[in-house]
Amino acid sequence: MVSLVRRLGKRKRFQGLRPMEIPRDADAVAQLLEETFDPSKDRESREVVREFRMLRYLGLLVWPEEWLGPGSGYVWEDEGRVVGNATITALPGHRDIWVLANVAVHPDYRRRGIGRALVEGSLALARSQGAEVVTLEVEHSNLPAQRIYRRLGFQMVEGVVDLIRDRVEKVTPPLLPPQLRWRELGEGEGARRYELYRASYPPSREKLRPLRTADFRMAPERMLTDRLGAILWGPALRRWALEEGGRLAAILTLSGLRRPPRRLEMVVHPNYLGVLESTLVGQGLHILASYPPAEVTASAFLSHPQALEALKSHGFREVRVMEQLELRLGRR
After folding, report:
1. Sign of CA dihedral 204, 209, 214, 218
2. Topology of domain 163-324, per CATH?
3. What is the pTM of this model?
4. What is the CATH number of domain 13-131?
5. pLDDT, mean of residues 228-253
6. Sign of the alpha-carbon dihedral angle for 29, 31, 32, 34
7. Which of 7, 123, 205, 264 gives a 20 to 30 Å CA spacing to 317?
């Protein structure tokens, strides 16, 4: 009996791939993501880490609706320590499209095949649930991850270029075509903004980051606090429309006006591609020049090269390229 107890005491703890369990793994996954990525530089990484921290204490009470159901991904455990993670979930309302995210391996455990095992396990889970397409986002410069995805058959379908401009000096306002006019958009025009975003949004991005009408509506209490803040400290965000005959041709959004870094965002209707991008960037910089000097960030889809060219011609430089990859799962 004593020898049996001794043998059991020497037994190694679990090592390998297993399904992720919430809330058991939430805190360990959050810590892993903090050690693997750099949440201080990436807003989305901060939000993911914060969400996992919440799940640690609240569990299923705050578990995202789209993550409910059979499985949500895998972790790689090494003697009680979570050293790898991959999350995979069905796109809400589309059980045939799944999104792979948070693929991370602790630096001390890389080059052991853990990343590939996490991805292959996630793909098998998605396939078993009827998935036809798996999509993900990965940094262009992340060569180890790129190799895994490419070898498994993923192909690039879209990309997003993040850019930055260090400061904004005085900028001459651009000339506007005579048939167009500027107009500042009101808070209650979310439906019009949504329609323009829908018309210009790349179809492939809808699989990864769907547009939701709720994102274009402002709750009354939020509207009230924003108005109060604008009175006390000035607006944190402003939007302008370029219109032709009452029809939206483009929207310019400037955010971070109270607290840098500032951000410039433009959306152009397909009928005006290649016509308005430089005007939008120039006007945005002209407005920002009236604020204290600060960094300005912006992004452009690779499928919208006119926007990328306009930003670079106005002094923005590339800092990161995120590629969206897709894999079409074959039936087995």
Report:
1. negative
2. Aminopeptidase (3.40.630)
3. 0.84
4. 3.40.630.30
5. 88
6. positive
7. 205
